[in-house]
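QUALITY CONTROL LOG
STEP: pairwise intake check
CHECKER ROLE: data steward
CRITERIA: each record must contain a sequence immediately followed by its structure tokens, with no blank fields

ENTRY 1 OF 2
RESULT FIELD BELOW
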Amino acid sequence: MSDRRFRITTAFQRHVANPLTRLMPFQTLLETTGRVSGQPRRTPLGGKRVGDSFWLVSEFGTKSQYVRNIQADPRVRVRIGGRWHHGTAHLLPDDDPVARLRTLPKGNSMAVKALGTRLLTIRVDLTD
């Protein structure tokens, strides 16, 4: 069931949800560098800035393309409130992603918990 859920969810996100939400001026976006293409890849997501860090939880962990891009190059940009910030992303497999979701915006957290099969916490240390 988890592979089927992954395929259905990622197909919907890739072809329907992400293209639409990328256009929203205040949607939070994570920009990674494509590990094969070298091109910028922008992924709409939910999370929360806490001080000089931005926290998020990936619903599919290392199966997510943006997580695989982070593994290849952790330098990222995050658009928060319409403003871009540079940072370095860190995968935190030892963090409790369910507990972390309780500290993040409720709407996105509910979707991540409902659809996710391999939750993984990510912290982006912002440099500007």
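ENTRY 2 OF 2
RESULT FIELD BELOW
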Amino acid sequence: MIIPKTLEEIELIRQSALLVSKTLGMIATEIKPGVTTLDLDKKAEEFIRDHGAVPGFKGLYGCPSTLLTSVNEQIVHGLPTDTPIKEGDIVSVDCGALMNEFYGDHAYTFEVGEVKEETRKLLQVTKESLYVGIREFKIGNRVEDVGNAIQRYCEAQGYTVVRELVGHGLGRKMHEGPEMPNYGKKGKGKKFVEGLVVAIEPMINLGTRNIKQLNDGWTIVTRDGKPSAHFEHDVALINGKPELLSTFKYIYEALGIQSNEEDEFRAKPLVL
């Protein structure tokens, strides 16, 4: 079921989303060879609680962690472990926070040192596809217009789109309607309505789109063992247009990256 939000509720979701953004920004400087994803998880939980919120994932559906950390061929839902991160790895960090009764939820895939050029390009295209999809989140369009745009953009460059895992509506629950697949046919699916808030999150593979789940009951990996990338933003439909509630700018500030990729999706500049 689609649950439109008032402007006041959207602002509360924005607060939660920005706390997740700040958490990812803090984590950005910690991701380096020798660090474990368990280390990252502990730091993230402490950071979120210190800011007056609770981890959005921990305890949800039995999830044991604050972060879901997916390394290399892991697509999503990777559980933190005590295995050190290595030079050349990629790490998707997915994080949620619950504050003021509303959730924030988004993700970024980080490079650890120098990664292979084919992997770096996968990350670039996946992140670009996120914004390609967000542009289609507007009044007059339907759910599969977003997925179709993401699918066409990624497949045109030789990548594959995961089908079994999708984005979702966001609000008082982590997962609300509608489901937001990263594939589809133009003009299909539920109509977008003013006040809708969704998490759009392309999950794109270098090789096959086929997946499998590990024995931990959580971690999803590519069946051929090739890398996968995952980027996610929280977006609200305001005045008929998409507006970002989350941001990668804290990550970019931490890593010294200059980018204006989010500017077209903001009614006013974001002050860090």
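INTAKE CHECK: passed for both entries
DESCRIPTIVE NOTE, ENTRY 2: Helices lie at 7-28, 37-50, 117-134, 143-155, 249-255.
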